């Protein structure tokens, strides 16, 4: 009798699960009419939580690809799948051509970031502003971040800080390599955007940015103990610190108008559109939060992974080091330090960085929203549905990259991927605005590391975490050692 009760209970649970999923699907598709028959195949999951349990389970395991693999197994290799992600009915896009379409078609798609991201990064930052405002702010911030003149100016500061950091780490013994790199890249981005602030202010900002970042990809659960709750508290502290800086600078400007702009905050405070409108404090702070968060997280993580991968592949290390030695050898005797021209001559190192960006795929997805019903690959994406551009599927496509999980910079020899097949910084009009600065930072660090140092990785078997970004759980504990010649 007990066995029969157990079987009946399990059968009841299966029926309940089936009914709940059917109800959830009906709820989001009930107003679509015949369009629901043109939706991509997929599964909208459970009421309220959608597919987030299976997503989080996959990305907290050692096989994050199992999330999309489950869709492929159940629904075939369709390239587009309906799902319920981050609180919204969504379509996950996994093919290069479809990803390119979503990223470049501004007439059909707009930013569609989850509420958690918008609330944390700021509703007046790039993640949630109109196309016209975005064009203006992007134009305003492009030259001070990625322009040739700006990059040339930043090089000396980046160089000096990289050399000092490597010297310091070599004397420190065991360190968390990723933690130290994040501090370094944060120092650099702080200088570019806020010029000189006190050590205490920098430490506070860096600490709170770390907490904020863990909530950016989390579910918007504002309850103590959840990442989103902690991130919201961190944002309040960040805004308070940045507001104090803005207020102080405005007061100084009133007393002594500056003769020249020295950092990004100056640029933002002085900016005005064709009608004379200037940015208010909230707009300035949200743009700074966005740039400061993105500007050091990606650079720090990719620099760490490039260093680790170089150290794990001695043949790659040897070839990259030889290139850097050749650059130094050809340098005029009176030249001190790197030049932008030399960085652009680092052809093999550039391939090492690109391969690291591909293998690690720092951002697993970006979010868009359909402005209207859109047809892609024979399916309809309904107006108002979110679209997740799934970079991991594109970067690990075996038809484009043989042995896709293998780190092989030589695969880039004579190879230029087709549009949509390589998207480390996104694409289209919303391409990451700091991509050139990030690659410059990584190149300068690896130049000096390859020439003079090596990494002794103490725990190479450390589990890897994939949220919010790919990193070793122990933050890459090891020692930076001076090379012995």
UniProtKB/TrEMBL annotation:
It is a single-pass membrane protein. It comes from the Eukaryota. It holds the Pfam family p450. It is found in: Membrane. CDD domains: CYP90-like. Its main location: membrane. Transmembrane segments: none annotated. Keywords: Heme, Iron, Membrane, Metal-binding, Monooxygenase, Oxidoreductase, Transmembrane, Transmembrane helix. The keyword Iron applies. SUPFAM superfamilies: Cytochrome P450. Belongs to the cytochrome P450 family. This is Ent-kaurenoic acid oxidase. It comes from Penstemon davidsonii.
